[in-house]
Write a structure and sequence with these properties.
Elements lengths: L15 E6 L3 H17 L7 E6 L5 H10 L5 E9 L5 H20 L3 E8 L2 H6 L1 E3 L2 E2 H21 L1
Parallel strand pairs: 1-2, 1-3, 3-4
Antiparallel strand pairs: 5-6
Length: 157
């Protein structure tokens, strides 16, 4: 029978960095509220959370690169909202944000949760930022906490 490696999301003693895009602020503020709720519910102390506000999703990778380089954080969470418009701008911003965020996680061997919504409409984004589809900010925070502990379990083997 295969061995199953898994972990619970527990924030006791962890330091968490959050990079928050201001663009589409009515949405991203709700994602942040969800993330902070999740972190608090899972034991992360308020003074162990740093929130860096960046202009938009495109700036998230550079911000978390600098945050990761400090060695101060057990995990990082990226929050943003990219809503499709009438131009190809959506694809460039969403794609580069995703690629850059993934690159930082691998380069620094650090859990980085992707809480960047990529939706066709503002209504879809709001539904995922505390509406009928839940709060992806909350989910991203739980993911970050779980991954910290899962990577520690994996390292033991």
């Amino acid at each position: 029978m295969p061995r199953t490696l898994q972990a619970e999301p527990n924030g006791d003693g962890l330091r968490i960095g959050v990079a928050l895009a201001r663009f589409n602020q009515a949405i991203t503020d709700r994602l942040l509220a969800g993330a902070l709720d999740a972190l608090g519910r899972h034991g992360v102390a308020d003074d162990a959370i740093d929130v860096a506000r960046v202009p938009g999703a495109f700036e998230l990778p550079l911000c978390i690169e600098r945050m990761a380089a400090t060695g101060r954080y057990d995990a990082l969470i990226c929050l943003g909202a990219v809503v499709r418009g009438e131009t190809p701008h959506f694809e460039y911003v969403a794609g580069e944000a995703a690629r850059g965020i993934a690159d930082v996680a691998r380069r620094h061997d650090l859990p980085v949760a992707f809480g960047v919504l990529t939706t066709d409409t503002v209504e879809q984004a709001l539904a995922r930022a505390g509406g009928e589809r839940g709060n992806k900010g909350y989910e991203a925070a739980v993911t970050a906490l779980e991954m910290v502990h899962l990577l520690r379990v994996v390292q033991k083997f």
